[in-house]
Amino acid sequence: MRIHIRSFTVICFLLGTLLTSCHTHHQAVSHKTSHQPKFIDDVYINAHAKSSATANAIDPAKPKPKTKAPEKPKVVVVEETDQSEVSVPLEKCAIEPIFRKDAYTSKQDKEIRKKYADMLGIKAKEINSNSLYEFIEAWYGTNYHLGGCSRDGIDCSGFAQKLYGEVYGVDLLRTAMEQFKRCKRIKHSRDAEEGDLVFFHIHSRRITHVGIYLANNYFVHASTSGGVMISNLNEDYWHKYFAGAGRLPKGS
């Protein structure tokens, strides 16, 4: 009887050990196969990547977005280049005098004379030609246009040609270089007089720009940067490129 009880106890012990071993093995397997999500990796990053991929997916039904063509670099011209070297048609300025005897009243003449005398820092009585300043008043601010000779746009030599024709009755050639060759040279600006031409060689050994001398180192010209305007020879830019002045016989 004692042997049977002992055998039964041994059998129970062996069965218990076997069951415990199986349960432990099952837990180990379950631990290996289960997936414990990490919040950053699985909940946020993976979900975000999935939504981003969906958002960035190309829908074949939708037209492809148009891409803008790169803008062309803007070219800024500082001053006029020599017209004889530029392949643009040069419009000859038609000489049509616009200053009749009754074009301006005496009161308007005085106002124009005073206006420009103040701009040049001189006295009104130092202005010799009313017609010159009436012409400047009519054309002041006109846009620059290389090759042009109208109110829509005019270049430096075209402006000089038109001014000389209408104010002085002198037929100038069309380019700054040709005008320079025709003049009697005046080397120093201090010797220039009202109505003389002033010349510049901008970024070149050749004459590339022309204006009309007024007084006190001021001159009027058609500039690429501001159209018809008044500048001063003492300004650094103009002083640097000043080539001299020139004089022509004037009819009036």
Description:
This protein is of the alpha+beta class. The chain has a domain at 83-247: Alpha-Beta Complex (endopeptidase fold (from Nostoc punctiforme)), CATH 3.90.1720.10. The chain is built from 7 helices and 8 strands; from the N terminus they run H-H-H-H-E-E-H-H-E-E-E-E-E-H-E. The chain has a 6-stranded antiparallel beta sheet with strand order 3-8-4-5-6-7. The chain has a two-stranded antiparallel ribbon with strand order 1-2. A hairpin with a 3-residue loop joins strand 6 (218-223) and strand 7. Helix 3 packs across helix 4 (130-139) and helix 4 packs antiparallel against helix 5 (156-168). It is elongated. The chain starts with a helix and ends in a 5-residue tail after the last strand. The relative contact order is 0.12. The model is unreliable at 24-58 and 72-79 (pLDDT under 50).
Brief characterization of the structure:
The protein has helices at residues 2-33, 39-56, 106-120, 130-139, 156-168, 176-182, 236-241, and strands spanning 149-150, 153-154, 184-186, 197-200, 209-215, 218-223, 227-232, 242-247. The protein is α+β, with helices and mostly antiparallel strands and 252 residues long. The longest helix is centred in the first third of the chain and has 32 residues, at 2-33.
Write the layout of secondary structure elements.
Elements: H1 2-33, H2 39-56, H3 106-120, H4 130-139, E1 149-150, E2 153-154, H5 156-168, H6 176-182, E3 184-186, E4 197-200, E5 209-215, E6 218-223, E7 227-232, H7 236-241, E8 242-247
Antiparallel strand pairs: 1-2, 3-8, 4-5, 4-8, 5-6, 6-7
Helix pairs in contact: 3-4, 4-5
